[in-house]
Amino acid sequence: xxxxxxxxxxxxxxxxxxxxxxxxxxxxxxxxxxxxxxxxxxxxxxxxxxxxxxxxxxxxxxxxxxxxxxxxxxxxxxxxxxxxxxxxxxxxxxxxxxxxxxxxxxxxxxxxxxxxxxxxxxxxxxxxxxxxxxxxxxxxxxxxxxxxxxxxxxxxxxx
Amino acid sequence: xxxxxxxxxxxxxxxxxxxxxxxxxxxxxxxxxxxxxxxxxxxxxxxxxxxxxxxxxxxxxxxxxxxxxxxxxxxxxxxxxxxxxxxxxxxxxxxxxxxxxxxxxxxxxxxxxxxxxxxxxxxxxxxxxxxxxxxxxxxxxxxxxxxxxxxxxxxxxxx
DNA sequence: TTGCTTGCAAATTTTTTGCAAAAAC
DNA sequence: GTTTTTGCAAAAAATTTGCAAGCAA
Lengths: 159, 159
Description:
By secondary structure, chain A is of the alpha+beta class. Chain A has helices at residues 25-34, 43-53, 59-72, 119-123, 140-147, and strands at residues 76-78, 86-88, 95-99, 105-108, 127-138.
């Protein structure tokens, strides 16, 4: 696990922050708490995890560090059709699938979807920087469960 | 302008509500306040408009009626990378462009974009019901303004 | 009349902020 | 030693909810 935005870094993809100037244990733990996680947790869940390592950390600090990391491009924040932001350690270009049955948010790496032709927009005078695609429906697990007529798990959109 | 979820309706595309049972002035005005609007206003702006017609209406009622209308499929709610929901009277399938310069949210009717091939997902066991595409960048107006080196309007993401 | 909907106010939920103390460099 | 970041508590912002009163059917 690489430390974050610290002078001791050798990493090639670590960019010095415009806003954040110092590496702290809190920042590092917030970053670590997300690594390898594919559940797209909410801030509170990240707080819960980091709190185990740093019992004195506050939720405000978690939010501040999440912002720093997003700004730095080391994580992504997702605002789906929910009231709270989710956070995603996967920074490469990808989309998301939201299961309306179980509430899971799943990373999608769709070759096709990424080939959305946005050049017509440029011809219309728009300048496109990025785009988000979210697909809704039923995930593989829930769809299979329904096929075998097993009772569904209740939808949990909030943890 | 058609009234909403009322027995007197003749409209072909009005669906009787599962939850809402009665048509009220409040519901009607909330719906009317959105008709013909392409700015994707926040709940508070809709409240401001309806308040002119019904000075005693409360924000809570506006929220309740917006929910009813969304549930009924008569309007859409949009959660972009903002802290509050926007509402959209356009219920036909379309996407959105968010101008990062001026903050406007613009309806996109992209022929190409709607042809995103989601069939690979079905082969993977997913059941797809719908999808959202939001494109970010600079709108036509802001892009033109920049080309003529006129000063940009400040970005206003919240009203 | 019946019971759904409203208005009001208070509660909730999520995120942000001010400020003194602690930590990083 | 100087400046940034943290922890705490309080504020802010958006939305939801309980409940008595009002209104639609």
